Amino acid sequence: MAGVRALVRALVEDLDAARAHDPAARSRLEVALAYPGVHALWAHRAAHRLWRNPALRLPARLLSQLARATTGIEIHPGARLGRRLFIDHGMGVVIGETTVVGDDVMLYHGVTLGGRSLNRGKRHPTLGDRVTVGAGAKVLGPVWVGDDAQIGANAVVVKDVPAGAVAVGIPARIRVPNAPVTERSRTEDPSELIEYII
Ligand SMILES: CC(C)(COP(=O)(O)OP(=O)(O)OC[C@H]1O[C@@H](n2cnc3c(N)ncnc32)[C@H](O)[C@@H]1OP(=O)(O)O)[C@@H](O)C(=O)NCCC(=O)NCCS
Questions:
Q1: What is the pLDDT of residue 193?
Q2: What is the pLDDT of residues 146-179, one digit of tens each?
Q3: 136 CA: nearest ligand 1 atom
Q4: pTM confidence score
Q5: Which residue's CA is the nearest one to ligand 1's atom 28?
Q6: Within 6 Å (CB) of ligand 1, which residues are found?
Q7: Which of 81, 126, 155, 159 is the right S-S partner for 137, CB 3.0 to 4.6 Å?
Q8: DSSP string, 41-92
Q9: How many A from CA of 143 to the centre of ligand 1?
Q10: From the Swiss-Prot or TrEMBL record, what is one GO molecular function term (predicted)?
């Protein structure tokens, strides 16, 4: 029973996150029915749960591909996503297997959180809390994007972005570095960012 309550709370949280980030969203019902970013996120939460059982990785991949076919958003089931993630519009978003995303993050359409190498280890970005990634931006490699950072539309990020900074352009330049990347943030275990919902 407690599990069901936690699940419902998580689903409502996702709906409210969409309403908080999109002035066009008028009700929870509208978001639940008409927001592909929310549908992709919900499918991912189920796919990720399957993925954590090594025997269920194929069904996890199939569920992820079904979500991609219906939403245009491809999230590898291994990716670890925090609470209240909102993917606006969604089409063309790709999130790689070893990506880690903190809480209250916002991604627009066309965002890639991708790899730069074919190594099997950690090869995708880690995003802190309250990060915004603009439409069409690519964040590539095992880079760290600090809390509250903003990545401009169409930027290509290949280096760490300090907390609170604005990164724009190709390759991305830091426009507002108000906090350095600290040793702690580089070495922090990304799994500690994530509070699993399901
Ligand atoms: C990067 C961003 C967050 C910066 O917002 P901001 O803090 O208000 O900063 P400003 O608009 O004052 O811009 C700061 C500087 O960066 C430049 N800049 C802003 N966005 C840029 C972008 N995407 N690419 C290149 N340069 C950009 C501005 O021209 C300005 O340059 P200047 O200092 O030489 O005048 C914002 O411009 C952005 O790209 N947001 C993404 C929005 C999005 O994807 N919307 C999709 C809706 S469907």
A1: 38
A2: 999 999 999 999 999 999 999 999 999 998 655 5
A3: 44
A4: 0.90
A5: 168
A6: 108, 134-135, 150, 152-154, 166, 168-169, 175
A7: 155
A8: HHHHHHHHHHHTSGGGHHHHHHHHHHHHHHHS-EE-TT-EE-TT-EESS-TT
A9: 21
A10: serine O-acetyltransferase activity
